[in-house]
Design goal:
Elements (H helix, E strand, L loop, with lengths): L2 H9 L14 H12 L23 E5 L2 E5 L8 E8 L5 E2 L15 E4 L7 E8 L13 E3 L9 E6 L13 E4 L15 H19 L5 E4 L10 E3 L5 E3 L2 H12 L3 E6 L13 E2 L4 E2 L6 H19 L1 H4 L3 E4 L13 H18 L5 E6 L5 H11 L5 E7 L7 H5 L8 E7 L14 H11 L6 E4 L31 H10 L4 E2 L1 E5 L7 E7 L5 E7 L15 E8 L6 E9 L18 H10 L3 E8 L6 E7 L3 E9 L7
Parallel strand pairs: 8-25, 9-10, 10-13, 13-16, 16-17, 17-18, 18-19, 19-20
Antiparallel strand pairs: 1-2, 2-5, 3-4, 3-6, 6-7, 8-22, 11-12, 14-15, 21-23, 23-24, 24-29, 25-28, 26-27, 26-29
Helix pairs in contact: 1-3, 5-7, 10-11
């Protein structure tokens, strides 16, 4: 067993505290408590006021395709998304939930319904919703179809290298992270070697996020956790503030070239109404404050301290996000009205320090509470500089209509948590399926979302206990030891595209739903074409041969010079470090670590050089589902592999 494996194995289950309400097994207790409470909402998600009712979508069509049904309809003004109802012949109707997404609604048409059996007839209805938590008021007329017999024909992708579709919007430059106090593990006297190694690898993960993935902003929990000692009650109940540990964390973050989203959580024990209400192995206190004025004082003191230390010009580029997922009982046992009070007190305290400081929320799970917070802020004159929310297993919905209804349509929209799955240790996390999912989300966000923070950067993630094996289906883009998972390579490929977006047109069975394409030009003339094949239906994480496709790519608008061509791949057999580790290995020995590190690279192969004919170059390749392929054309062979 290597030194790293031995250190981490000795660290298993050593998270601070006792879990919720106390026990001798913090990991097991935290997991049981999480599973008991995670799906409990604080408000009935079924109701909606009359003004939020929407008409049924018109023009619903269902067309047979190999391995799936292609659905299309007309968009409804004011809709955040669309719920799809499917009925298999002889069965009861069901809402399409994509293998377990926390939000069933999809952002819009077209949509590929996958996981269908060949033979049965399927009937569909579609309804528009004003928000993730609202019900469908009116359903479309039903339509029916079956899957098409295979095999599928090729998908043709045409790219015009001479076009200009505007600047690429790098929405992925905010990244999610475990609580940043991990940066300081083992830094004090008596710190153990395992903790110090976790801190070192976690630090390196954030450095990689900045250097390779372009991350500029980090969003993390628990800056107000008592581990950081921000406030204590002195004689007579007077609050005593100490931000030394916060300073050390943010100093280190800034040294790496990163800025924080200052998520204002959890509640310090000195302020909590019920300090025994906690979540996770590290016992983050989820209680509302005992005294609202003390909460306002704490937030104001923190904001003033940060401005005093780093300067207003710097901190004005940060942001303050009020709490985390207050619509879930597991994070907020108060009411929605109490959350709005929490938000008000924090926002007013921050703006009292300096109006240039940015504050927002509601930082909810599953895209909820956007309408209530926007309405509350507009009606009461409460500052709101951005809206933030989360979703897993689905693409971000359209929040702009909800903001426009309250004259807040220009606010930045941040999905401060987003990922392929919301379940701790869910097998989809280490699956190649996450790679095309990432590209689908980042591509979908172009022009309508300002930031999409993948949750999270590293498998050093201790919410429900530290990892007990190397590949344990953790949330991280990077494993323990900072090996790059398939999802990491998807963000890497996006970040290493050029700045000028190009026109792309696709056609064929699965085009623009399963198989999507994204193309850019670099300043030096290098052309990148990303083509991926995926579905948000995580029930198909092991693939579906019916959904594999052959791709015929043509890049036109090229000049007559020689181009070097390279093909990069991410799928089950390529750029998949998880497949390089035997399934029965918990922690690699030194020899296996060496082999894994040698294999930890993007698979890329040199193709024959290309001299365009009539300004065009053509390529053909097989693309499994799930899978990504990138064709890079470097003029005169100048381009380097990235």
């Amino acid at each position: 067993m290597s030194g790293r494996a031995a250190d981490l194995r000795n660290a298993e289950g050593t998270g601070r505290g006792q879990g919720a309400r106390g026990t001798s097994r913090p990991d097991e207790a935290a997991r049981a408590d999480w599973e008991r409470r995670i799906y409990r909402r604080l408000a009935d998600p079924a109701g909606a006021d009359g003004p939020l009712a929407l008409p049924a979508p018109a023009g619903l069509r269902a067309e047979p395709r190999t391995g799936h049904a292609l659905l299309s309809w007309e968009r409804v003004p004011g809709a955040a998304g669309y719920v799809i109802e499917r009925t298999e012949a002889g069965c009861a109707p069901e809402i399409v939930r994509h293998g377990g997404s926390d939000v069933p609604a999809v952002a819009g048409p077209p949509f590929a319904d996958t996981g269908l059996a060949d033979g049965p007839e399927y009937s569909y209805r579609v309804g528009a919703v004003t928000g993730a938590e609202y019900r469908v008021w009116s359903w479309s007329e039903p339509v029916s179809t079956r899957t098409a017999p295979g095999p599928a024909g090729p998908v043709t992708v045409d790219v015009d290298a001479s076009s200009d579709r505007g600047k690429l919007d790098r929405v992925w430059r905010m990244v999610g992270s475990e609580r940043l106090s991990q940066l300081r593990l083992g830094s004090g006297r008596g710190g153990d070697a395992a903790a110090g190694q976790i801190a070192a690898e976690f630090t390196e993960a954030l450095r990689l996020a900045h250097k390779d993935l372009g991350a500029q902003v980090v969003r993390a929990h628990a800056i107000l956790h008592d581990d950081n000692g921000v406030v204590a009650a002195g004689p007579g109940g007077v609050l005593i503030f100490d931000f030394a540990r916060v300073d050390a964390i943010y100093d280190q973050l800034r040294e790496m070239g990163l800025r924080p989203v200052v998520e204002l959580s959890f509640m310090p024990a000195a302020l909590a109404r019920d300090p025994g209400l906690t979540v996770f192995t590290y016992r983050g206190i989820i209680s509302p404050p005992r005294d609202w004025s003390q909460w306002r004082l704490l937030v104001g003191e923190l904001a003033a301290h940060l401005v005093g230390r780093y300067g207003i010009d710097e901190v004005a580029q940060w942001s303050f996000e009020v709490w985390n997922e207050p619509n879930l009982e597991v994070f907020w046992p108060g009411t929605r009205e109490e959350y709005l009070r929490l938000y008000d007190e924090a926002a007013l305290a921050i703006k009292a320090v300096d109006p240039r400081l940015r504050v927002g929320g509601p930082s909810t799970a599953a895209g909820e509470w956007i309408e209530p917070l926007a309405a509350h802020a507009a009606e009461n004159g409460i500052p709101l500089d951005f809206v933030s929310t989360h979703t897993y297993g689905n693409l971000p919905l359209d929040l702009r209509p909800a903001l426009r209804r309250h004259d807040l349509g220009t606010l930045p929209i941040w999905w401060t948590e987003w990922g392929i799955g919301s379940t701790h240790f869910g097998p989809v996390h280490d699956s190649p399926m996450g790679a095309p999912f990432v590209l689908s989300g980042l591509h979908s966000a172009q022009g309508r979302v300002d930031a999409v923070a993948y949750w999270v950067i590293s498998d050093h993630f201790e919410e429900l206990g530290r990892p007990q094996r190397l590949f344990h289906n953790g949330f991280g883009l990077l494993s323990v030891g900072n090996l790059r998972k398939p999802r990491y390579w998807a963000v890497h490929l996006a970040e290493n595209m050029g700045d000028q977006a190009l026109a792309v047109r696709s056609r064929g069975d699965g085009a623009d739903t399963l198989v999507q394409a994204w193309a850019t030009r670099h300043e030096d003339g290098t052309i990148d074409v990303l083509v991926w094949n995926g579905t948000i239906n995580v029930a198909l994480m092991a693939g579906d041969p019916r959904l594999d496709r052959n791709v015929s790519l043509q890049v036109s608008g090229l000049d007559g010079q020689l181009y070097q061509a390279r093909l990069a791949r991410v799928d089950e057999r390529h750029s998949n470090i998880v497949a390089q580790c035997p399934a029965d290995v918990r922690w690699p020995d030194d020899a296996l670590w060496a082999r894994l590190r040698a294999a930890d690279e993007l698979h890329e192969e040199r193709l024959p050089d290309v001299t365009p004919e009539r300004g065009a170059a053509s390529f053909s390749f097989h693309l499994p589902m799930p899978g990504i392929a990138r064709i890079r054309l470097s003029a005169g062979g100048r381009g380097e592999s990235r």
